[in-house]
Amino acid sequence: MFGMGGVGVELFKDFAIGIPPLNQTLARRMMEETKVYQLLKGYRNVPPANIQLLEEILVRFSQMLVDYPQLKEVDINPLFINSKEAVALDARIVIDKQKVFRRLEPHGHLVITPYPKKYETFWKVRDGRTVMLRPIKPEDEPLWLEMFQNFSEESIRYRFFQVLKDTPHETRVRYCNIDYDREIAIVAEITEDKRRSILGVTRVSIESDGKKGEIAFIVADPWQGLGLGTKMIDYALEICKDMKLETVYAIILQENYRAISLMRKMGFTVEYQNDGTARATLDLKEEEEEICKEPTKQENSLSDLPSHLRIKPRWRRMSSNRQTGYSLDSS
């Protein structure tokens, strides 16, 4: 909770609530929801406070709550801040004594799972350039919008089932600020001339049973034809296995022949529906059982790697009707 300090917090009820873990983008949005934020920007002869420092304090405060589940209550009130420094004038901490001597599951006390850095990896596209595959972040909103502006009308209709000319801020926040326990979105990011860009997104929305997920994907038109979509889907499927999903399905427009063809080559079973869509389904549990029956030296050589990096090469993991010919690189 962030808001006006001192007795003002009780008198004016000016506060905003954020759920850890926070990053600088989420910390700034939380501050912007309060009236005291306008005072922090400066007024009359009062210079503005160091907003960036305040963001950093909120992020570190949030990380403390993430790292120490034994903290039951923490209150810093008031916090003095000017253009140069910040000082906690009063603070209070309450420890949960029962949790001090208990073995706790990592992040089990959090409502939202922290950013899964273990899913970051690098891959080379067909023209030799290197892209990073990683989970999406809240601060990716400007990059996501730039990517959206590179979509053709056809690509937008195939992905969103309608033609969208623009996306409001609320929609972009929904796509970029996700709960990693209930949804995973992998972006392909490239940095050229010190400028970052997102080239495509593969998203899996996990259903309430935790066993099924719906996958959707899109690659910006200038980057299509380089094998990026195939790689992103394949990598997302490996993450689905790591998250213990058993079935992944996609809903595709029937005229989207390229996507349907790709799904088939990836091992999905395609069924055409009466509403003009096709449903592609992949049984991950069955596929995993098939792989376990055929251990290879290549697979055994990966056993010394951290579990999240034990991603089998495409030519090993895929069934006979999957596409082949892509190098593993550092995936």
Provide a brief overview of the structure.
The chain is an alpha+beta fold and 331 residues long.
Task: Please describe what this structure looks like.
It is a single chain. The chain is an alpha+beta fold and 331 residues long. Mean pLDDT is 84; it is low at 297-331. An 8-stranded mixed beta sheet has the order 7-8-9-10-11-12-14-13, with helices on both faces. A two-stranded antiparallel ribbon has the order 1-2. Strands 3-6 form a two-stranded antiparallel ribbon. The two termini are 39 Å apart. It is built from 13 helices and 14 strands. Helix content is 31%, strand content 24%. The protein has helices spanning 8-11, 24-32, 36-40, 51-67, 97-100, 141-148, 153-160, 169-176, 228-242, 257-265, 284-292, 297-300, 314-317; strands at 2-3, 15-16, 71-76, 79-81, 86-88, 91-95, 121-124, 130-135, 183-192, 195-206, 212-219, 247-253, 269-272, 277-283.
Outline the secondary-structure elements.
Layout: E1 2-3, H1 8-11, E2 15-16, H2 24-32, H3 36-40, H4 51-67, E3 71-76, E4 79-81, E5 86-88, E6 91-95, H5 97-100, E7 121-124, E8 130-135, H6 141-148, H7 153-160, H8 169-176, E9 183-192, E10 195-206, E11 212-219, H9 228-242, E12 247-253, H10 257-265, E13 269-272, E14 277-283, H11 284-292, H12 297-300, H13 314-317
Helix pairs in contact: 2-4
